[in-house]
Design brief:
This protein is α/β, with parallel strands linked by helices and about 600 residues long. It is about 65% helix and about 15% strand. It has 18 helices and 14 strands. The strands form four sheets. Strands 8-11-12-6-13-14 form a six-stranded mixed β-sheet, sandwiched between helices. A four-stranded mixed β-sheet has the order 3-7-4-5, covered by helices on one side. A hairpin with a 5-residue loop joins strand 4 and strand 5. It is elongated and about 110 Å long. About 30% of the residues are buried. The N terminus is likely disordered.
């Protein structure tokens, strides 16, 4: 299919995508405020155009007064201009303020909406699994950038470009009649006959701007794809910078500075390479649009010069024609003047659309695993549980497992066999599982690498519950019981705790959370791998005592043989033979 045939379809598809992104806000709970602000902005835009019409009429009277040396009319028109200018300034200020206010409210609503959906039902986690598991290039990259930066660009450009287009259309409608009347009738000899052409300047303006629009499109269309890629490369570079800061200690200990420096240079190289291509294409576009704009300054004078020098029109009418032509030309040249911004707008809309589609696909996604709460007095029961990787490879198939109150189970197996993935399935966050499992309500999971938020220590300790739920005495007791007495006096200190605390301290902080919340059922994934044997023994005894006192049980993943002393049962992942339907089977003893 040729480009001219595709272009209208692409434009319509883009407008539909933009409409689908924009419409929800104007149908939301804020719809009346949003619609009211939008109506006010539209009215103010119409007011601006009306001021321009008055200004165009003023041109004729003012310059005629100059030509006729009519001092009384001159000063009267100066006063009238001051009123027009004052009204224009007031309208411009109000339009700016209300436009910015609507953009702010719109962005705030979109951000809240997208954040709610992204964080609901583990969608943020499922998107990362889909991206790294499928690696098909269809899953959106850098959702943080799409929520933070792309939404700001989208709301800003949607308002400015749509209001600019509205202004251009209204200006065109308002001035094209003025220009038609001022143009007069031009005699055009053609093939031995003479044709009378009314409104000649209108036809000239249409032809001039149509040619400019077509040329601009063909010069600037590569900008859309380049802008899309530029946003992606910038986000990748920023993301790696954050990771270097987050893992600064590990990188320093591994002497990995040169490797990370190389990775940063590689990503920044992609930023610069794409940006250079963007500059080259923008240079071509700027060269044409600047030439196009400068030519329009004198174009009307050149066309109307014969009429002026013949005495057919006076200076005031010549200036009015030039002004009207300029307004019509500006209106028709809206696409030419804003092509680079339209390219950024479309690229941003495409990124948000793909993010929206991905979230919709994963919104409320749950695995085929039927997960129900256990009945009172019962424990964990899993029947016909199968677990797969995001790639579709089957790890475990048809497992039947149970844990009764008072049990302590150790899950063991080779690295990569699916131990942590089985825990994720029990927790209900792994989407690539099926079967049936009932899990007690009062359960808590400790991941291999606990999350420690920045901020006050008391908030990191109580996470994800509010720190206000616990007294200082309870928080201090939990730290003491988790062998972190040195932190007891720092509850109100704010810091980057994931950077300040060692791996062992972070694991002890995670255990302090357990001792604080006192769950009956505990699933611990390598929860003491960074601790010494003495600390591990002390903490495991306290954890086991806590779940027994609450009438529950503990299930642990660990490679250390010493952890086995705290458990009376085993689940072992055993490799299957070649050709089996799954890689491992679970043997319960």
């Amino acid at each position: 299919m040729t480009e001219p045939t595709q272009a209208p379809k692409n434009i319509l598809a883009t407008l539909r995508r933009i409409g689908a992104l924009a419409a929800p806000y104007f149908r939301s709970e804020e719809k009346w405020v949003a619609r009211g602000l939008l109506a006010a902005i539209v009215a103010l835009n119409l007011g601006v155009v009306y001021m321009l019409v008055l200004n165009n009429q003023w041109y004729a009277r003012f310059y005629d007064a100059l030509q006729n040396k009519d001092q009384a009319v001159f000063w009267r028109e100066i006063v009238f201009f001051c009123w027009i200018a004052a009204a224009y300034i007031v309208i411009a200020i109000l339009k700016f303020y209300l436009t910015q206010l609507l953009q702010l409210r719109w962005r705030a609503w979109m951000t809240r909406s997208y954040l709610s959906r992204w964080m609901a039902n583990h969608t943020f986690y499922h998107l990362e699994l889909a991206r790294y598991g499928q690696n098909d290039g269809q899953t959106p990259d850098n959702p943080d950038q799409r929520i933070q930066e792309d939404m700001q660009i989208f709301t800003d450009y949607t308002m400015t470009l749509s209001m600019g287009l509205l202004n251009a259309v209204v200006t065109l409608v308002s001035f094209i009649g003025i220009l038609w009347g001022l143009s007069g009738v031009v005699s055009l000899p053609l093939f031995g006959s003479t044709y009378e052409v009314p409104g000649s300047m209108v036809w000239i303006a249409l032809a001039y701007c149509a040619a400019g629009t077509v040329i601009t499109h063909y010069i600037g269309r590569p900008l859309i794809g380049l802008n899309f890629q530029q946003q992606r490369y910038e986000a990748d570079f920023r993301h790696h910078l954050v990771r270097v800061r987050e893992y600064s200690e590990a990188i320093a200990l591994d002497r990995g500075e040169q490797v990370e420096h190389g990775q940063l240079k590689l990503r920044f190289g992609s930023v610069l390479k794409n940006y250079l291509q963007l500059i080259k294409k923008q240079k071509n576009l700027v060269a044409f649009t600047a030439s196009f704009g400068q030519a329009s300054v004198v174009f009307a004078f050149i066309v109307q010069a014969p009429r002026f020098f013949s005495g057919a029109i006076q200076l005031g009418q010549l200036m009015q024609v030039n002004s009207a032509f300029g307004r019509v030309q500006d209106s028709l040249s809206w696409f030419v003047d804003n092509y680079d911004r339209v390219a950024v707008w479309r690229a941003t809309a495409d990124r948000l659309t793909s993010f929206e589609a991905a979230m919709r696909a994963h919104d409320g996604t749950v695995s085929a695993l039927e997960r129900t709460p256990s009945k009172a007095g019962e424990g964990l029961n899993a029947a016909d549980v199968s677990v797969a990787l995001p790639t579709g490879a089957s790890l475990i198939q048809g497992a039947a497992l149970s844990v009764k109150p008072g049990d302590s189970v150790l899950l063991q197996g080779p690295s990569g066999s699916g131990k942590s993935t089985l825990f994720r399935s029990f927790a209900g966050i792994w989407p690539f599982a099926n079967g049936r499992v009932s899990v007690p309500d009062n359960a808590m999971f400790i991941p291999q690498r606990p999350y420690v938020p920045n901020g006050r220590l008391r908030d990191a300790l109580a996470y994800p519950e509010p720190a206000s739920k616990y007294t200082d005495a309870q928080l201090v007791q939990a730290l003491d019981d988790a062998l972190l007495p040195d932190l007891a006096g720092r509850l109100d200190d704010s810091d980057a705790w994931s950077q300040k605390l060692s791996g062992g301290e972070q694991q002890r902080l995670a255990i302090a959370r357990v001792l604080l919340r006192k769950p009956a059922w505990l699933f611990a994934d390598e929860a003491t791998s960074a601790l010494d044997a003495e600390a591990e023994e002390t903490l495991y005894k306290r954890l086991a005592a806590g779940v027994r006192a609450a009438g529950g049980a503990m299930v642990s993943i660990a490679h250390r043989a010493s952890v086995g002393a705290f458990h009376d049962r085993r689940w072992t992942l055993v490799p299957e033979t070649d050709g089996a339907s799954a890689r491992y089977r679970v043997e319960a003893t």
